[in-house]
Amino acid sequence: MTSDLPDPVELGAVVVGVDASPQARTAALWAAAEAGHRGQPLNIVHAADIEGRSVLTPTETLRALRDAGNELLDGTAEAVRAAHPGLTVTKELSNRDAVSSLHAAAGDRGTIVVGSRGLGGFASLTLGSVGLGVASRTEVPVTVVRGETDRPATGVVTAAVRGRSDLDWVLIAAAEAEARQASLRLLSVSNVLTHVGRFTTMLDSIGEITEEKAHETAAVAEAVRKRYPGLTVTHDVETGTSVPGILVEATALTDLLVMGARRRMVGSGAALGRVPHALLHHGHCPVQIIPPGYTATPAS
Q1: What confidence tens digit (pLDDT) does each residue in 154-210 have?
Q2: pTM for this structure?
Q3: CATH hierarchy code of domain 9-144
Q4: 9-144 and 156-287 share one CATH topology?
Q5: What topology is assigned to 156-287 in CATH?
Q6: Which tens digits make up the pLDDT trace of 18-53?
Q7: Where are the domains of the chain?
Q8: Cα dihedral: 72, 78, 79, 81 (round 10)
C-alpha cells in the first residue's frame, strides 16, 4: 500500500430494468432507495424488444407492446415517486433487447439493477443465461436484488475480498457503505481444500496461508480507512471448505454484498465464476458484481 492509492469514489446514476413481475417492482423500489442514498437520478427501463421481432409481426401487436410497456413504466414510476417523492425519475421504453437496453442506458458510469425473477422483457435477464451474461460482460456494476423485502436493515455492507489487488473495487463498496451511513465489513474466505493435496497437507502451513490472507485483508482495511476516515471498517477471515457457502451465509447478515468479478472464457464468450454464480442464485440480500477493470469516478 502506498500514498498513491485511489481517491474516494463517486457512485453513478442508477438504471433499473423492469417487467410486470412483483420482483421487478421490488427491484425498482430498491433501486430508488439506492439512487436516493447516492444523490443520483433513477432511470427506469423496459425493453419491448421490438427490433428483435419478425418483420411479419402485425403492427397492432407492436403497438400493443409499446402501450403495455409505457403503462408499466408509468405505474412503476408512480410507485417510486410515492415512496421517494424527492427523487429524480426518468422512464425509457427501449425497442432493443433487455441486455442491450440496460447497457446503453447505464453508459460507462451507471449501475444496473435487476430483480431476482421476471415475466417478460427482463425475464431472462434476471437469473437466466442472459442475466448471467449481463453480469459477466457488463462494463459497469450490476446489482441483483435478492432477499426478503421486509427484512430489518443490518447497517452493514460486506465486501468479499480476495487480497490487496481488490482495493479499487473495495473503495466502491466503501462508498456504498458511506452513502447508507452503514459500516463496511471486509470478509475473506480461506478455502482449506484449495491447498490440501496441491501445495501442502500440513495444517500449520494452511494456517500460515490463512494468516497471510488476514494480513492482506487488514492492509486493504487500513487503506480504506485512510480514504474514508469517518467509516467504520471491520475485517475478518473465515476458514472453511466452501467459499460460496460461507459467502451465501454472510448475505443473511448484511444489507448488500459487493464482490469483484473475475471473468473466465467459456466457448465464445465470458462467464461468471461459481462463487458469484452461487451468490446471485442463493444470496439472502442484494448482490453487487463489479466487473474487472472498472474504475469509478473520483469524488469531487
Answers
A1: 999 999 999 999 999 999 999 999 999 999 999 999 876 665 555 445 555 666 777
A2: 0.88
A3: 3.40.50.620
A4: yes
A5: Rossmann fold (3.40.50)
A6: 988 888 999 999 999 999 999 999 999 999 988 878
A7: 9-144, 156-287
A8: 140
